[in-house]
Design goal:
The structure is a homotrimer of 349-residue chains. Chain A has 14 helices and 9 strands. By secondary structure, chain A is of the alpha/beta class.
């Protein structure tokens, strides 16, 4: 199987791709949410919590920083990003990894006519880990494949690709749900509403793929006509026996659920200003909804937000989107530690 | 007082604002020059000198780097800057702080419609210190206030805001004066000329606020018509009993003073090319002035310069603007150490 | 000699310039390939190999990182670059040097009318080493000279200047040749073909200057009419008794040589689209050439490439351009270690 080409590789199933990658040693790429199973999710949540605890003491901070001293990561972010970029950078810093970055292709050799494959291959020569955000769906996987082909495999983490996938955002959402429901029976059996532009929001797509790993979960998709969840994902959920309902009325759904996941409209993907014809204010979390939301329920948002959640909601203790930001940092530390095979050192600390 | 809003906060006096911030623990923001008193200035100068000494040996360098290992700073610089940015970055490196940076808002989430408050709040989630340069006067204070409101206070340092304030530049100027007059009775009683575009130069404004802390200082404002020191500052000095004189003739003033503080014309703030109608060459430090300047006097400049000081002046030992650059680094190390409560570790070293 | 001016300095011979710099202590600048002699090249190759070995173990990695802890470098890259920039950054990280960078002059004080000399002088205030890429030939040397003049000498490394020089690329090419021919008698006596745009490719120019240090080397310059090696270099080689031949037919030369050094067309230096009138495909390394290339010969390329070498060639074990990339990192670590006087610590490890 070693000598297969890109086209053959693309036709493999998930488990076969994993097998392909494992031929070259214990290299672990993070490409898409579908690759994570329940065991992995439980481990990563536990690891993140352990790391948060360790980092509270001075000695722990130094222990974490010593774990990957001398290792180097490349942050290749050729799509605008603040939150995810900084989150990964800080996660690397916490583990003692040194970062270099490419954010603006105008300073790069692509100007001189180099292919993207050659560019990334060059980076891989210098580093032990590549984190990449790229507008093109599937690009991270193509690079992971290429690095194996050329015999210098380096772990690749997909930090967002086009409208498609954002698996580490999904992990941080899972970790947030996990922490929030820790004393309420965990994620199993919870009812979760997803609100807004579900068609084009990759964070929701990535999270939904993960939720099939939990028992008895029920999802509500609340979206304007034309922005409802894509058919591919609905088909996937039916196959995976995940129960879901579709609707347009947010106020009706709020009293029913344990978590409300708000999203902004993704008008950067508009083709002809179609967002302007939608009354998106119906998909805002208004102050009066606080009264009908269950006392133990939570309000999530991947951020950045526009008007979906007014700033005054922030003070409600069920609004946990700012905690999501911190969780994102911890879960990325956990993920990198696992990829770089330092998870055991941490759990044994 | 905890629940006050931004408008109420803005109407507070300096000491009340300080009290407000102190409610949340020992958090120290650097917002404006007016907040520094003589005791603070003397301490920071001593601390900077101590740090310079420590850093001369290899052991000292490692001691300094260990002080804040595991801490992280965000450099949020959305106005062009070389000197100040690098100076802060290096100051962090000296203390073992890891930096992340935002310099170009085009790579940030602001593109996606996020408010500046949300953007900065996101950064604050990842770091222990925020250093910010922003075109808008008062922005650093607004953020400091916001971070307290949301219960996640992180120290904020104003690294320059619009035409308004640049308090750390003022600190480095004070430190430069302090070092230069160490053997000549200190800053008290010294005569200092400020030359050039005094209306729009925030470095001069910030420094003048600090000079009220010294006894018997006399200031000379030498500026073209239309660019004289602002009325607000002159009023402030009268209230604070700081003696000053205004004039237009540089050659007349030079023999009288202990320090000449040159500045460039700030034509980036022109509204209709008014700078072009001014003969700014009258506010250049010409070579012949070296003969009439007192042998122990000093020539300062915040840099960058244009033609205000010809390069040949650099060789005169009274020209100390390049030393100002180094002083800026040391005083920022001292300031950060103080904010992060490591000043005692340093003085006891 | 201390007080000489820039014009006088420029007229000095290489050995005199070196003497000038040495007056100020043991400061070592890397300006141009001509400054390296055989002894230096042998030492740097050995040092690079030693460092590669040390870095294989965890203990070695930590040893290397401790060598220059507390030192700071400025990467001043105002010309587009990915490879060289990252290579230097990573080299600094390996030795524990902290980096700051200037890549985009639009964020710098040059906007405010500052001279480049003042800008770089500012940087030199903060750091212990300056690495610079600049479009202007001779700029690195001018800065090195200036820093001596002002009494704050800091080592300067030229990381590429215009069409002129790229001495560290030449060093990595030498190191690649050195490693490849280690078991075949070394570089002495080898036949090397240079192919493509030899007129404007600074990497080839810089490498050829170094090859005069080896005995019995023979060079073949294979280039389209109008892009042949410049007269200045051919004159230099005649003086240095380096044997060379010029030609246009790549297929004819390949069977004769031990190394083929391919280059891309440098059309960014075109004055009126002259590159478009050249059939550059005649200077591509086609697959059939693999059959006529000697089994122990090597194929080099400074990268980035366009079509000069098809991707399928990469799999041939004589294609070593990706190894060049890694060699570049190691040789830069060695060079910086030598400049910062840590070479003995390394060889004694």
């Amino acid at each position: 199987m070693k000598g297969i080409d890109w086209k053959t590789f693309q036709r493999l199933r998930g488990s076969e791709k994993k097998e392909y990658f494992m031929q070259f040693g214990n290299i672990f790429h993070v490409i898409m949410s579908q690759q994570f199973d329940r065991k992995f999710l439980d481990e990563i949540c536990e690891l993140a919590t352990k790391i948060r605890g360790i980092s509270k003491g001075n000695k722990g901070v130094k222990f974490l920083q010593s774990l990957l001293q001398g290792k180097r990561a490349m942050l290749y972010f050729v799509q605008p990003s603040t939150r995810t970029f900084l989150s990964f950078m800080v996660a690397c810093q916490i583990l003692g990894i040194q970062c270099s970055e490419v954010r603006d292709t105008s300073t790069s050799s692509e100007l001189k006519g180099e292919s993207q494959e050659d560019t990334v291959r060059t980076f891989s020569s210098y580093v032990d880990l590549i984190v990449m955000r790229h507008p093109q769906a599937g690009f991270a996987e193509r690079i992971a494949f290429l690095l194996h082909q050329i015999g210098r495999p380096v772990p690749v983490i997909n930090a967002g690709s086009g409208k498609d996938q954002h698996p580490t955002q999904a992990l941080l959402d899972i970790y947030t749900l996990h922490r929030s429901f820790e004393n309420y029976g965990g994620i199993d059996g919870k009812k979760i509403a997803f609100v807004g532009d579900l068609l084009r929001g990759r964070t929701v797509r990535s999270l939904v793929y993960l939720l099939r790993n939990y028992d008895g979960v029920k999802l509500y998709f609340v979206a304007p006509k034309g922005l409802q969840m894509g058919e591919d994902l609905k088909k996937y959920m039916s196959e995976q026996k995940v129960v879901f309902e579709e609707g347009e009325d947010l106020g009706e759904v709020i009293p029913l659920v344990d978590a409300v996941y708000m999203t902004r409209i993704q008008d950067e993907y508009d083709e002809a200003g179609e967002s302007k014809r939608i009354d998106y204010s119906r998909y805002h979390f208004n102050k009066e909804y606080l009264d009908i939301l269950h006392p133990n329920a939570i309000i999530m948002h991947p951020l950045p937000r526009r008007g979906e959640i007014p700033v005054e909601i922030d003070e409600d203790r069920r609004a946990i989107y700012w905690r999501q930001v911190r969780n994102g940092m911890w879960v990325r530390v956990a993920l990198i530690a696992k990829i770089m095979q330092k998870d055991r050192d941490i759990t044994e600390y």
